[in-house]
Amino acid sequence: MKRFVQASFVSGVVAIVLVGCEGNPGAPGQSRLPEDRYPPTVEIILPLAGKPLYSQSVVEASIFDDDTITRQDFLIDGIVRNEFFTVRRAPTLFSWDASTLAPGRHTFQMRVTDATGKSGESALLYLLRSDTQPVGNDRLRYFTDSSGVETTKWKLPADSAGSFAGLGTRFTPDKPCLLKVIRVKLYRKATWAGTALWLDIYTERNSLPDTLIYRKVINLRNLEGGEFNDWVESTFRSGLPINGEFFAVVTLAEDAIGDTMAIQSDDGGWANGHGMMKTLAGEWKTFNVGRGRKPNPLIEASVQY
Known about the structure:
The chain has 305 residues and is mainly beta. It has two domains: 5-129, Immunoglobulins (Immunoglobulin-like, Sandwich); 138-304, Jelly Rolls (Sandwich). The chain has one helix and 24 strands. It is globular, with a radius of gyration of 22 Å.
């Protein structure tokens, strides 16, 4: 049976457990330890297909293997060009200096190799290198499915989809930037009175929220009857400095005792796992729902490079 382990978790200490052996005492036995039987698989998350490639970009991948990933190669137009890539968080996140790449269309692939020498390649990604980065803000969003329809809603109170204390998104800018706008879309039932929520922005550490750098109170208590289904927005006129990845998370306020949150989804074809949840016990976890896919809350950010 194939055993999948996300590569970002197998790059540290590996524990090996002896499950049994055969043979007489004192004689050599036959090991039943699991073997590395399968090559790794890799899927490109960023850059997004169809989005122009500028001088600086980010490469993010989802990697699965039954052994430790020991090498990553980056192929531009079929040629390994590792010199243009630097590690942000091995083995899944890298910075790409594309400043010397000629304008026009290019192909991109990522190849990964595990400790036994088995390798796997991503599908070809077609990118358009542009010399002219548009003036203004760059919109970052991760929640649109393959049909281009927003299909995931925040649901208050929680239902059978699960209950949480907070839901959010990990944002991965191409380079250091100023956060200009953060927007979140909330939904509640007409029969529900509402609560107080916090829209929080955190720095990132080890792929989890770390330091709180901004908080906005979203007060839904005074809403009249009827459904609430609208964007809540925070604007930073001078810009909030961001040096790496960051999280935007909506959590229940401390006085919202007994309330819970959830997401309902129609299992759309989602492209990545940028969703983040806060459990009722206060733990941060990557958010997963529906057939192993990873939908993300309806949060988007505008940044300025």
